[in-house]
Amino acid sequence: MPKVAVYNTKGEQKGSIELSPAVFAATGTKSVIHQVYLALEANAREPW
């Protein structure tokens, strides 16, 4: 998996970490991604 830089709040690079394949190598179908998106949008609505 790729490595990404780690920065502090001042914008200075302080190291790097390797991304976890368990999280970033996951795949999903379009329908699953669409269902997750719809659920997030529905939960973002403010109640009356």
TrEMBL record:
Ranges in a coiled coil: none
Keyword NAD appears in the UniProt entry: no
Molecular function as annotated in GO: structural constituent of ribosome
Domain of life (superkingdom): Bacteria
Keywords, in A-Z order: Ribonucleoprotein, Ribosomal protein
Similarity-based family: Belongs to the universal ribosomal protein uL4 family.
Name of the featured protein: 50S ribosomal protein L4
Organism: Candidatus Magasanikbacteria bacterium CG10_big_fil_rev_8_21_14_0_10_43_6
